[in-house]
Design a protein that fits this description.
By secondary structure, the protein is an alpha+beta fold. It is built from six helices and nine strands; from the N terminus they run βααβββββααααβββ. It has helices at about 15, 20-25, 115-120, 130-135, 140-145, 150; strands at about 10, 30-35, 40-50, 80-85, 85-95, 100-110, 165-170, 175-180, 195. Strands 1, 2, 3, 4, 5, 6, 7, 8 and 9 form a nine-stranded antiparallel β-sheet that branches. A hairpin with a 3-residue loop joins strand 4 (about 80-85) and strand 5. It binds a DNA duplex through strand 4, strand 5 and helix 5.
DNA sequence: ATATCGATTATCT
DNA sequence: GATAATCGATATG
């Protein structure tokens, strides 16, 4: 059974046409969907906001290049980049054309298609304690969903027909907390990482600020 | 639980 | 030529 996402509606473009911090906070609890057989779905539990050309930690900081061009386009599109010679990372563009804010996906709670995700990750699921190894971490979630730059960069994440999209099933997030962003050296103290403090699928420390 | 380190390549200086 | 929005393995407390 292909697990059709019957009660999941795509988020409208207007959702993404806001500042990266608000999009980051509100996108927690939404669902990342990869159409296919089976359909892969997972709830977003950890993200980071990147603020565009004023943010020293953002890829847009030094202006537009071929690599980061999607960030300077309209909101709601996938920016996928390759890092450390090994991993892809997924972002969604925010704000509006010419404004390069975005949100980085850091961790998901897998909902459907877990065996397919495990296969894509090259691991075997022995018990529930293996589930976080599927999608906890920016590189891991991309591997689980088969996300690559060649395949998904520039994809419209508001279109269910696009193969990769972001949906809302009415879930209301509890206990959203903030912390500094992970793995960066510039602007490393700003509290721009958003996560659900109750979720066991969050990557990295669960100590919050504020 | 936290710390350190090697792998591996696109992108930019 | 240096760097990087990471991961997995290893070491140590």
């Amino acid at each position: 059974m292909p697990d059709p996402p019957s009660n999941i509606r795509p988020l409208p473009r207007a959702f993404f046409a806001r500042g990266a911090r608000r999009v980051a906070r509100d996108i927690l609890g939404k669902i990342l969907v990869r159409e296919g057989t089976p359909c892969l779905t997972a709830r977003i539990v950890e993200v980071e906001a990147y603020l565009g050309d004023k943010d020293p930690a953002a890829h847009a900081y030094s202006g537009q290049t071929l690599r980061n061009a999607v960030l300077f386009g309209p909101p709601g599109y996938a920016y996928v980049y390759f890092i450390y010679g090994n991993h892809y990372c997924l972002n969604v563009s925010c704000e509006r054309e010419g404004r390069a804010g975005c949100v980085l996906f850091r961790a998901l709670e897998p909902l459907t298609g877990l065996e397919a995700m495990a296969h894509a990750r090259g691991i075997t699921l022995h018990s529930a304690k293996d589930y976080p190894k599927l999608t906890s971490g920016p590189g891991r979630l991309c591997e689980a969903f088969g996300i690559t730059r060649a395949r998904d960069n520039g994809c419209d994440l508001t279109l269910a027909s696009g193969g990769l999209w972001i949906g809302d099933d009415g879930f209301r997030s509890r206990s959203v907390v903030l912390s500094p962003r992970i793995g960066i050296t510039k602007a490393a103290t700003l509290p721009l990482r958003y996560f659900l403090s109750r979720s066991p699928f969050v990557s990295g420390p669960k100590t919050s600020l504020l």
